[in-house]
Design a protein that fits this description.
Elements lengths: L2 H4 L14 H23 L7 H26 L7 H19 L1 H25 L4 H23 L1 H4 L19 H10 L5 H9 L7 H19 L1 H11 L1 H6 L4 H24 L15 H11 L4 H21 L1 H24 L3 H20 L5 H4 L2 H13 L20
Length: 419
């Protein structure tokens, strides 16, 4: 049998052509909106598709998105960055300190700089000294917590008398895209099935925006362009796939790894700035990251080390978090119903492709979730607050069978190994 015979076949449409990526993404979004619309109609939980929930989800997904992008840059160069949490912690403090004295744009720069310093430290440890990537990442997270606690007691106590919290800082003014935002709000208020649901979800994406939200969404296509459409990106990714071959072709592997990890730290620090500049917080608070650096890493893995996939993962986690904050246990309970519908759709999809095992697993999961939905009338609020973390675990468990990380990720590399 030849290599051509054993090559995997790419998904194709009925006419034999592969469906474009944008078309697949649009189809997934349409299915998601439809499932939420059906769930809203049958359960009466209109918060699931309200513009307020979408606005909350956008603000909550933003730090996760920045952390996921940071993980993408680092791990595409072959460096595991489990220290994203620590770099984000440094970013929260740097943003609060700079923002208090010089305003919101200074807060953004402060978060970038402090996060980049954490990335530089990770690069020195892993690239230059060959420290285990996991050990270095954990150490940076612990170091970030300790440094920010010390700096807070040194800087913020004379200002706010509270070593765990900074004084309130100035935030960005919000804006909406008009007249689109008003038109969608009017359509949402008419309570039409599907149309009002779609208008509510879309309306939250074009209203209550800040410059940092725009920057976050623009960085997704920008990261794709730089990493997949430029010489710089090709060389950086080659360092994560085969650094020996890359060096033999003249690529400065150490330089690219350093740049990637520093950019990774800067993006994680930007996620910390997003938390500090959140309209509901506007300041540094000890422990405010709440593990979002780790969730960002999970979103990146869920997205299979691709910008579009990690955006979807960040949106999923942010949406679940937004739902539980806006409506509590009742709305999270309704999401169990939505999960049942999704499981049935997946079962039909796999059955149509004659993948009976996957279809049976999806259908069985749907039955179990539906049984839980009927057995528990309402998810306790204490349990609902952990919904994003539970979704993280479930998504990683489901996605683990289809992941393709960079080939040389986590491996120690020394100059001249191929000689």
């Amino acid at each position: 049998m030849t290599a051509v015979d054993t090559a995997p076949v790419a998904p194709t449409s009925r006419n034999g052509r592969r469906m474009p990526g944008w078309a697949r993404a649009a189809l997934v979004v349409a299915i998601g909106v439809g499932v939420l619309a059906i769930t809203t109609t049958l359960t009466g939980q209109y918060q699931l598709t309200s513009s307020g929930t979408t606005q909350a989800a956008v603000r909550l997904l933003l730090p996760i998105l920045f952390a996921a992008l940071g993980g993408l840059w680092s791990e595409r160069s072959g460096i595991i960055n489990i220290g994203l949490e620590g770099m984000m912690i440094l970013g929260t403090w740097g943003a609060a300190w700079a923002g208090f004295y010089w305003g919101p744009w200074a807060a953004v720069i402060g978060g970038l700089v402090f996060g980049a310093l954490g990335g530089l430290l990770h690069a020195v440890a892993t690239v230059t000294f060959g420290v285990n990537h996991i050990v270095s990442g954990v150490a940076i997270t612990l170091l970030g917590m300790g440094i920010t606690q010390y700096l807070s007691s040194l800087i913020f106590v004379p200002l706010s008398q509270n070593p765990r919290q900074s004084p309130r800082i100035e935030g960005f003014e919000t804006f909406s895209i008009q007249p689109l935002a008003d038109g969608l709000a009017a359509l949402e208020g008419q309570q039409r099935v599907l149309l009002s649901d779609a208008a509510g979800l879309l309306g939250g994406l074009v209203s209550g925006l800040t410059p940092l939200v725009v920057i976050g969404f623009l960085l997704v296509p920008l990261s794709y362009f730089v990493l997949w459409r430029t010489r710089f990106g090709l060389r950086l990714r080659s360092c994560g796939e085969n650094p020996v071959a890359a060096e033999s072709l003249g690529v400065q592997v150490f330089t690219y790894k350093y740049l990637a990890v520093i950019i990774s730290g800067a993006l994680a620090g930007l996620g910390g700035a997003a938390l500090t500049l959140n309209p509901g917080q506007l300041g540094y608070l000890e422990g405010q990251t709440g593990g979002r650096g780790y969730i960002g890493l999970a979103a990146m893995i869920f997205g299979n080390w691709r910008p579009g996939g990690l955006l979807a993962g960040s949106a999923l986690f942010g949406y679940v978090d937004g739902v539980q904050l806006r409506a509590g246990g009742e709305a999270v309970h309704a999401l169990l119903y939505a999960t049942t519908i999704l499981a049935v759709i997946l079962a039909v999809f796999w059955a149509a492709r004659r993948n009976w095992r996957s279809a049976a697993v999806a259908l069985g999961a749907g039955v179990v979730v539906y049984a839980v939905y009927w057995a528990i009338p309402e998810v306790p609020r204490e349990f609902a607050s952990y919904a994003p973390q539970l979704v993280t675990l479930l998504v990683l468990a489901v996605a683990s069978q289809h992941l393709r990380p960079p080939a040389a990720i986590g491996l120690e590399y020394r100059r001249g190994e191929g000689d």
